[in-house]
């Protein structure tokens, strides 16, 4: 039952009950690993519930810098009796199960092929703290202390983090430090340590930061000059709004007057949230909303209005598991197609597809420029994994020389110089007309925005040919968008073979790891990361340059593959799917496995059977 | 046949204090039915803006969808406007107002637009006390979709499709009062003497100002008529089951003194009973307003006038403490924290 | 300026002001032509307005039975001064412009290459009727009388129709007959008649009927046993509800008690309309809603719920011109993609695509069976042209032996016999579980329907693999649907060539006419009419059997073509588009012209330039 | 930590008149926070149904989305239910009810679900007088999304995110009265002596019966606490800016006599003032109810009890004159007019 020592390469999973304060201590653990210079990638797997249900916190630690999930769990810290049986089963052979032995473990639970490590966590807490609710809180710190000792996590680093966290409540620091020591000391006194899987200080994190995507998105909006946010609470997008509020209160309150250089409205629903942000954008401010799941469906009517009335609009969609209310606390990329063509009638929208919190920041700032330039709805398509988990990511940067690009807006003087102003006249041939902000000019440039058919002057028409001309112009504008949006990223100097993988957003980590493994196996594969829709010619060229494209995405219906067919006219038989839609971020393993299957028996039409992560998932083969 | 209908162009060509002619407040030629109450309201809006010396381009016109919501095309051609989607005008108005607190926001809506699909936004915009004028052109029916009952239609009224409405009407004035709206009034489309001052007062009110304006639909109003020739037409319509004939009618104008009552005969011969608040009515007492309203209802009267105003009204901007400069005018310097701050942020995340 | 005599082959267009009562008299005209045994196809081209705007009524009369539109107008009856200039311009060379010369025509208006026929319509009316509003009404009948004489329309037939129409108001008959005679006699006394284009009694209408699609849809719902309708007014679907009400009041009132065997609720909006109908279906009644345009967008959230909670639901979408409020009184087929994949997350829905009022009736009845069998949302995708215009169509038929197919529903006894009931257990392998209607059994079979993830028993789960298994089952169910839905229609005994056209719904008339012309030219083309989505293997086989497929549809974005690619994996380069989206029904001419263009210079990706009807439409070439 | 929480299984094992044990009315083990007011209401629902001798499968449970809307899982496991989407329960209830008038429709919703996103459906279901019980579990906040203010939150209350609510709360009881609802009541989650009879009365009422139940959220209630240890926890939460710790709390139970008042201390030490209607209160007078409500509000009291009932209430079915047989039981014979009629239809269309 012993194996060779593994350094900075493990998956630790905490199994807790939600509402017991565990996720903050588990996050301290992740941060401490990061502070040791070791790349780390935590995933908070929480229920759609406030208290009492199982919740997990999974931490991938990888000296090589792999930030995707990995399936085999090395260490499971199992605090939750409800899920314990499953938790124990989920540990890899020879792995470690750490539990609270304040109450004895039932014999049935014992697995011979793993290490079962009992620590009297609750007992220690009861012995040292009086108030029951504090006993519970500190138990969470106690197990961190114990684990730290077991895997060589630097306790001083953990303590420093706690001190920083409670900087403004210093009286909380000593009891927390004490709890850490309680756990650490108990291990030192009672167990062999460190384990075979363990940590070592490293410098593999560079100048990277740890941040969640929703915080980065909220901050990006502040940097982009957004002044109006209207929103309605929904997981997992709520924290975009919360973060915008936090940052705005920090950086946008007039120091002299104490007045706010921003306005945030919690709307009565998502329809109103969209309407408000759209109204503000229409009136020349920068405004946005953020939503998820059902919120997108509810906004469909308004999305069509913004599209056809050509109002700039930024809409953050932090995707969760669908369909319907679905898995609200799990991740998916299943709103691609519904967002690309949201609303009835013929519509097409711009989607930005960030893969890291840094890109959330950058793309959010870009989104406002693009919305203003293109006078249309720009979606930032994030997801729960990206938005709510903290990620090791490039530091944020801002070029102070950068100027907000407000697109084609005429001021009074410019308007005076225009002969025959028409809101939708395509004078530049790019499909984009000139806006005038209300209040600009006493006698020129006013128009009545509308969702009904209009001519190039914005005047109501029932002339179908004029209408068709206007919606043709919208296609022209969409073509303009192709070159303005973030272009794809490539990972090879030049194309190396006939096969390639295509991915976007949060499948990136696992895709990069899979590529690395393939490369190590002497089978390097070309790769392209999509960063926006519509797709530019570069995307088409890359696909044309390969015989087979494996599109990796986290939805059932291969939505990105559909978009590639529809918009670029790619032959479907050339586009093969690697899918995952069990709500958990995809693993490199799952990618490699499906790739393997494809190479053997793929019919080109329907995705292959194995569409979820994990070897232990005995999903029965479905007859697609 | 609106193309032969006289426009509102007033003979007077006097400039107002802001330097504008009345014509500067007018809009495109109306395409509403001849005699439609909504057009009378449009005329009052023009008059009010002219008399208020508002610069036309400092007004933002908003609406939802319906005959009533087409109205913004027919006044204030030099104002920007947004003809939004059905029932969602308030949210767009809210956002627009947030972007620029210095303009005047004038929303119009129908009773279908406000009391059915839009009731949620109505409730919440009034709760937020958004600084806007909200005129509901109330004809008790869905004009544009050909005469279905709206939620403000009276019990037992017979819509043109022949079915009797069974549901008690929503009194939007009562609702606004219950919701804590800070300016609540009612009027009649043809009563310009009352309506124009009400609109002016609403525009001066620093908060949400709601005016329910009874505005007869000449085409689909909900009561059986009585005049001979009209019957003939109705027979014709019933036989062909096509509502495609709309006889040209005249605007209904009324005038009556404060404190008095007035019976108004609608185009089809039916009657409504208007009752104007006394000149000495104290409009700052919400519960007497509710009470008075209740009593008028029981008496079968439609109470008109300024029922309630909160003189201390705090609008949404003051609740949110937004800066005095319109948000859409703030410069990048003020808005963007810049790279140095970002370095600090990064540092805090390591 | 004279040409050879043309019998039973003309396009007559009436140009009126709306609200003047013209459309009922124009409809009388159409019906009279039909009664003469001549195929006729009227289109009411009305504004989104109640009174005072231009409206047209276009009647295609074709002895050959072509029911599509044709562009060249032979006779224009121009009653509307607003549109007169355009109207005169729209008449084909050598055609006829008939106008009211009560007021003299301006010299500018006169075209030398057409026949200008002035008739003192209003004067005749003023001379014979006193009340102004009646003068206006009877003017409409006067011009019908005049026109009848000019083209040999049988006046007795017209009179008979009027007599029937006013059967219950007999006092209206004589003045209407008189008005007819006034017009007819004036022509007889003052003009040469008949014109070179004229009518002759025929027997080309067989046992066909004249009916609009919305009436047929409403009646279909009555026949299918729908008992609950919840709806919200919106053009052009309003008359579906109106017709259901009319028919239900006729056929569904208990003769003894006077009570209604149905319930109709005008909802507060489309969200509520959907929710009500869904709730009724969930509770074992048959229920539906009907909407258009924005209504579909607003229903998106609920559509996803019905999909995932697997509640039978029938949703009629009478499509209008999009995007946004768009052209609410014009026709398009631009909600195909938005309906097929409506709602966020991965969703797929069943669409039925009727082409005639008869099919509206049949498919509406089928829709309820399919919804119950498949326990999902079934869309009936009609459009304004089909729904609101009257069409010459096969008589309606109903097999009295047909039993409502309520799908898999367990009653108390069946439930008692089931060992381990689970709402979503796929015991038959077709992806469809067994429903239990509330109230069935005191202690078995109850479940809590939900939009959140659930296991096969309907119990809430956050297990992603279970969730994935359930949404895989939904794909299995969707595959089951393929063979249950109406199968495509073919027009050739066997395939004749390498090219084929594919169409559906209201492009059918024009497509058939185009095929006929091609056949006459010795270039017959294969054709398939799609009647439902998802597409069955038959659809794929047909496409596979041809090199090039021309997909004819009335939207900008070639939505049906996208569905064919996505669902059948067809190579996009093989699918070429013939499009029309100016809001008017497509013409055979437009199809042939685009076909021609394709044969020359089509790149396979984007639709060709000419995407609207009509040679006079000088739409500028757009840079797609 | 609900899995160790006792269920509602009552020691009594007496059958009621319908032949069911109390346990037959229970549901799955609750996953709400320990001490959540919603669970107290669930217990009252179980009690009411048991005492009413309702057959469990003759009840249909409905809800929207929220902690409150999860409740149907925790009672009446032998009843069908529909956990719909956020704010749209009333429409689904309306349809279900139309399909089968013979079942009892019991809807629960939250204040977010009802007063924000769902206010439109609330207004209209009450206007239609749908025969259903509508219980709003009112905690003044959005529990499930972690404590944002709802539209019923009191002015000036501090939500856990730290911002002060500026908007005046919507009083759903006042609104229902203004809208003409036919049964309007309010209670407190922990007051079973009052709540159980109210639920029973509501179930007996042949129309729309609305009960606003104040139901403290132990986790995100909106007032600053005072007990020492609680402060410590709050500090902890503020510092970590994670609301992931929910101390286990006890249900708040209260009992007080009709006509009396009661101060209730919430979990965080803040207080609310309940005031119970007198036993001789005449609940058939809508305007005195409105008046009484207004006065209590001014006095800072939360008025509880059955404020208003219309004993002559006509529900939607009677307004629509639907047949006595549930629509979902009508046979094909009755529903389908058959081929002969169709021939007549065809004939009329030639
Ligand atoms: C989402 C949506 N549903 C339905 C419609 C159709 N519609 C247009 S106007 C209207 C009702 C208008 O009634 P009201 O607001 O009272 O205006 P009025 O025409 O009576 O002035 C409806 C239902 C629409 N445009 N959008
Ligand atoms: C359309 C939609 N928007 C937002 C959400 C997210 N959401 C879930 S519950 C909830 C609020 C619940 O508040 P309330 O109804 O008061 O219930 P409570 O949890 O307080 O009992 C929200 C906003 C959702 N599920 N659906
Ligand atoms: S239909 Fe009625 S509301 Fe609409 S324009 Fe005509 S008169 Fe006015
Ligand atoms: S968060 Fe509040 S409302 Fe939700 S279960 Fe917990 S205590 Fe109840
Ligand atoms: Mg109206
Ligand atoms: Mg709540």
TrEMBL record, chains A, C:
Species source reads Membranihabitans marinus
Identify the SUPFAM superfamilies for this entry.
Pyruvate-ferredoxin oxidoreductase, PFOR, domain III, Thiamin diphosphate-binding fold (THDP-binding), TK C-terminal domain-like
Q: Does the keyword Cytoplasm apply?
A: no
Point to the regions of Polar residues compositional bias.
613-624
Specify the Pyruvate/ketoisovalerate oxidoreductase catalytic domain's residue ranges. Answer: 19-184
> Any stretches that span the bilayer, and where are they?
none
Instruction: Describe the location of the Pyruvate flavodoxin/ferredoxin oxidoreductase pyrimidine binding domain by residue ranges.
Output: 220-391
Keywords attached to this entry: Oxidoreductase
Short name of one Pfam family: POR_N
* Residue spans of biased composition, Basic and acidic residues class: 602-612
In this chain, the stretch annotated as Disordered covers: 602-624
The alphabetized list of GO BP terms reads: response to oxidative stress
Positions in coiled-coil regions: none
Q: What is this protein called?
A: 2-oxoacid:acceptor oxidoreductase subunit alpha
InterPro entries from the UniProt entry: 2-oxoacid/accept_OxRdtase_asu (IPR022367), Pyruvate:ferred/Flavod_OxRd (IPR050722), Pyrv/ketoisovalerate_OxRed_cat (IPR019752), Pyrv_Fd/Flavodoxin_OxRdtase_N (IPR002880), Pyrv_flavodox_OxRed_cen (IPR002869), THDP-binding (IPR029061), Transketo_C/PFOR_II (IPR009014)
Task: Show the taxonomic lineage.
Answer: Bacteria, Pseudomonadati, Bacteroidota, Saprospiria, Saprospirales
The record's GO molecular-function terms, alphabetically, read:
oxidoreductase activity, acting on the aldehyde or oxo group of donors
| Domain of life, per lineage | Bacteria
Automatic annotation (TrEMBL), chains B, D:
Key words of the record: Oxidoreductase
Q: InterPro entries, per this entry? A: 2-oxoacid:Fd_oxidoreductase, THDP-binding, TPP_enzyme_TPP-bd
Its BP terms in the Gene Ontology are:
cellular respiration; small molecule metabolic process
Query: Where in the numbering of this chain does the Thiamine pyrophosphate enzyme TPP-binding domain appear?
Result: 65-213
* Database matches in Pfam families: TPP_enzyme_C (PF02775)
- Its recorded name reads 2-oxoacid:ferredoxin oxidoreductase subunit beta
Query: Which organism is this entry from?
Result: Membranihabitans marinus
Highest taxon in the source lineage: Bacteria
Return the PANTHER family for the record: 2-OXOGLUTARATE OXIDOREDUCTASE SUBUNIT KORB-RELATED, BLR6744 PROTEIN
- The residue range of the signal peptide is none
Q: Which GO terms describe its molecular function?
A: oxidoreductase activity, acting on the aldehyde or oxo group of donors, iron-sulfur protein as acceptor; thiamine pyrophosphate binding
